[in-house]
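Re: that backbone. Tokens:
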């Protein structure tokens, strides 16, 4: 994961930012530094596993402002806050907005690396869930309108004959649609079909 991850460091203190980048590089990470929240927002961030190490207080928009901006843009990169001015109210605000951790300067190496590990684990889980949701959507998108009608009724517990009556088609046609949609969705039984539908609801909740 270290080789794949990109760690972003946003801190206006150049000496601190440089030492932190050196620490991250020594730990096997690729890292980029930014002197302000604006610099970070203007940089084209690649879609790679990673996290954001973010100072709370900086000239211009604060770290909390950047966190809020990323949330508004639905950018879900995990955030670890670093601050030399820790207070309970700010820490609670940051954590409620989804921060992985809130570390006080001077930063302890082990605490930082532990927070990064948790941030990358969160990012991996988010990416996995996104990929699963995408694959689920692609499978459903492959169904014809009639196959989707049959799928929804099977999941609702309807029998083939009931589906035929509701849709005004023959029992044989229902069976044909059922076989096709199950093949497209990669399931072999009605129980598996039910689990597929349940997974879809969970992924989109």
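Recovered sequence:
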């Amino acid at each position: 994961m270290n080789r794949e991850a990109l760690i972003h460091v946003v801190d206006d203190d150049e000496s601190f930012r440089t030492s932190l980048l050196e620490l991250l590089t020594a730990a096997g990470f690729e890292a980029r530094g930014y002197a302000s929240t604006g610099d970070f927002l203007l940089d084209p961030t690649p879609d790679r596993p990673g996290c954001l190490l973010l100072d709370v207080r900086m000239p211009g928009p604060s770290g909390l402002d950047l966190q809020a901006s990323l949330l508004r843009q639905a950018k879900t990169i995990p955030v670890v806050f670093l601050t030399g001015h820790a207070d309970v109210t700010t820490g609670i605000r940051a954590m409620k907005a989804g921060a992985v951790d809130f570390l006080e300067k001077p930063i302890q190496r082990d605490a930082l690396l532990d927070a990064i590990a948790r941030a990358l684990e969160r990012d991996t889980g988010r990416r996995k869930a996104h990929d699963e949701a995408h694959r689920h959507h692609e499978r459903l998108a492959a169904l014809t309108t009639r196959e989707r009608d049959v799928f929804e009724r099977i999941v609702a517990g309807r029998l083939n004959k009931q589906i035929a009556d509701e849709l005004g088609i023959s029992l044989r046609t229902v069976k044909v649609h059922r076989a096709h949609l199950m093949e497209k969705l990669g399931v072999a039984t009605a129980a598996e079909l039910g689990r597929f539908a349940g997974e879809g609801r969970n992924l989109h909740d």
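The chain has nine helices and five strands. Strands lie at 6-10, 30-34, 50-55, 79-83, 101-104.
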